[in-house]
Amino acid sequence: MEPPEAPPLCRELWGSQEVTWYQGDPRGGLLRLRPPGARAGTGINQVLMRVLLPQGYPHSVSPDYLQYQCWDSLQALCSSLCSSLSARSVLQAMGVGDGAATVTGATLTWLLRDGVGMVTRITFTYLQGSRLDCEAKQWRLAADVINDAALLLELLAPDWPRAGPALLTLAAAGKCVVGVAGGATRTALAVHQARRDNVAEVAAKDSSQETLVNGLGLLLSLLLLPALEGRPWLTWGVVTLLLVTHVIANVRAVGALRLRSLNRPRLRLAVGGALRGGARGGGGAFAVPAPEEVNPREPLLPGFSTRLHLHLGAPLHRLVKSEAELLKAIECSPEQYLIVLRPEEGWVGVGLRRGSPPSTPLLACAHALLLEELLGPPLPPTAPMGAALRRMQGALRRCHAPGSVPWGVLAESSRIWRTLGPSFVDGLAAAGWETQRPLLAPDQWELEWAGPGGGASKEEPRPL
Could you tell me the pTM of the whole model? Predict the structure, then answer.
């Protein structure tokens, strides 16, 4: 029935989509009518949406949600099938079906796997725990690549009887890394995808989707395992196909994400794009590239595309080697942080001042990345303050003494950054970046020194 020309008594919406119009019935009831352009939905569709998608989809999640979840479901299906195949190999390596195998030997191998896995989990969390939020895309992909490597080790274990326990132990260690990195980054991505304070619901629906995919994988495994029994070449062909599809789906999944938070790789690309031009948007003296422009160029594995090792929030002994260097660093740095560049050693360090404003880590990190950009190809004439920056580039190229610090360049960059820094942060906000809570992983060291803006601590010093 077509809706009447008279306006409805009530409109019913799902999120921002009109679903039903209500009009008065001559007998005193209510007529339910479908609005023009509204799509008819079956009961099954509505049930599936409620089970698998967050309430209010698509308006309650980020625009990249559906594309990411589709690719993520495909990679989960491939991983589930590979896990079924590797489970058989693990049992064979443990001695199932081998009359010469002993229960004690299998038990010791199992305990060794668990023990190494526990140590690996704790060690990995200690070494990389603070970076999982900052590099969620990178560690999400790295976790799945490590998972594939662990599955391959498990598949190889039965063919190498003597090395079988060692291969299973390495595989268990890899899967523990996957458990920590995969679980932590899943939470970080749920925070990004939630748009209506519905992080818990987004995570729960992701779990429902994964359960459904694993159920499908279980059914396919029941058909696949008997067909591959006794056919090693066919087994390896299927495994290769699944692993390749798994990696491709993972790359497409993390590549679909458009994160607006600022980590070091994205901030590095934003600084480079602002200095080298060609970006749209932004404000002030900078044309800062938007998240939609930066995210596709972000490296998908951790630790790539860096010219310098950046230590943000470094202790003083990492920055300077003498009292003269400390005084020089204070003289050549902004008031709220110390910055020291040693280009021949391949690092730049930033010491954060105690009591500095919350925006200081972002400004300081961008300042350090500006210096890193000066070590790259020559800047174009259209760069903000391009003449001054190109002079600094020339000075850096002439700095070749091992361990030397180009104090003149640091002093000039600090002077320029007092003007360009706030303009750059404003450009980031105007381009759509979240500047209030950057994910830059600064170390916890804070420094106090005498000079403008504060002084050193008056407490009695204690020997180290």
Answer: 0.78
